[in-house]
TrEMBL record:
Major site of localization recorded for this protein: membrane
Boundaries of every YetF C-terminal domain copy: 97-164
Family: Belongs to the UPF0702 family.
Bilayer-spanning residue ranges: 16-34, 41-61, 67-85
Species this chain originates from: Catenulispora subtropica
Name of the protein: YetF C-terminal domain-containing protein
């Protein structure tokens, strides 16, 4: 029993190489799939993600089902990701076009209160999903949205029309200061008014 838990079926070098190759392949496949895959998972997308991990499991660990082999594969995967993320950040600062190539460009989903239907079709996004996402970010209706963008990382960013923006503390303080000035002026006018 103990032997099976700690004796790996393949060499650590092979396991490392397998993990790096599978990681790179998944990064490329997700990039080719587009931002939509990262934006919102519907039922079909969730099924793909769940099955994807099972499909690539044997490619990473080979015929090794030992405990130590699984832990080693996970450690290599996390390390490869950490190195890649830092390398990506480094290249982004050195060569901005690299991030553009790797991540893609933002896509406008709503502009001036109108759904950009051609963009939605190209990205295979349903209007109902886009509208639901805009509501989660404060828009009651599509017409309340100045611009909604699907960022390269899959986030949906909403900029509301100025009339629909919520007041912040600075706005409230400015209104209070205006009201105080108005009250002061009214008090002055009341004092100047002839009594009679």
């Amino acid at each position: 029993m103990w032997h099976d838990m700690f004796e790996t079926g393949i060499s650590y070098g092979e396991k490392t190489l397998r993990t790096i190759i599978v990681y790179a392949a998944i990064v490329v496949l997700l990039r080719l799939a587009g931002k939509r895959e990262l934006a919102q998972l519907n039922t079909l997308d969730l099924a793909v993600v769940m099955l994807l991990s099972n499909v690539v499991q044997n490619a990473i660990i080979g015929n090794d089902d030992s405990l130590i082999g699984g832990i080693y594969g996970a450690a290599v995967l996390i390390a490869v990701n950490a190195v890649f993320v830092r390398f990506q950040a480094y290249l982004t600062y050195r060569t901005p076009d690299f991030e553009h190539w790797l991540e893609g460009t933002p896509s406008v989903l709503i502009r001036d209160g109108k759904l950009q239907i051609e963009t939605l079709r190209r990205l295979a996004l349903r209007p109902a999903d886009v509208i639901a996402s805009s509501r989660k970010q404060g828009a009651e209706h599509v017409r309340d949205v100045h611009e909604m963008v699907l960022a390269p990382g899959g986030s949906m960013l909403v900029e509301l029309e100025q009339s629909e923006e919520s007041a912040n503390q600075g706005d409230v303080q400015a209104i209070r200061a205006d009201l105080a000035r108005i009250q002061e002026r009214l008090d002055q006018l009341l004092l100047q008014r002839p009594r009679g």
